[in-house]
Amino acid sequence: MSEFSEWPDSFHPDQAPVFAHNEIVSVRPAGDLWPALVRAAEWPAWYPHASEVRGIAPGDELVLGLTFSWKTLGVRVTTTITELVPSRTLAWRGTARGSRGYHRWALHPTTDGGCRIVTEEVQAGPVPTLLAARLRNNLVTFHQQWLDGLVARA
Predict the structure, then answer these.
(1) Core vs surface per residue 14-49: b (16+ CB within 10 A) or e
(2) Which of 49, 62, 95, 101 shows a CA-CA span of 20 to 30 A to 74?
(3) Residue 137: CATH number of its domain
(4) Residue 91 is part of which domain span?
(5) What pLDDT, in 10s, does the model give residues 30-47?
(6) Which InterPro entries match (predicted)?
(7) The overall pTM is greater than 0.85
């Protein structure tokens, strides 16, 4: 089940071959985690499945409408930021050969001053259709590593 009620056309989890949901709770507030999340050029330092980030300089933060590219799991993905509310929400559309996806992050404050971080990704296209079970399992595993790395980075 998705955390989010609204999805862009053709990316609703109920209609896509691949959907992954992960979450983690941190004792740190969202404002402490946000800088690491929006500095994509620095992802490879703490997320092992990110590399070769292009189109954004180290230290620069993602902004609404920005398009950049990077490799994840050895696949070059072109990514455009579609939602950005500082310390709350980040989302992007991504395209790669034979695949298109939508990846969303949400940071929710908790009553103890920390936050709950949710990340969800939908993938569609020929590759996700063909490899749905494998991709979903990989995304769940690797997104958990991404969340763990984000919390450790802060």
Answers:
(1) eebbbbbbbebebeebbebbbebbbbbbbbeebbeb
(2) 62
(3) 3.30.530.20
(4) 16-153
(5) 999 999 999 999 999 999
(6) Polyketide_cyclase/dehydratase, START-like_dom_sf
(7) yes
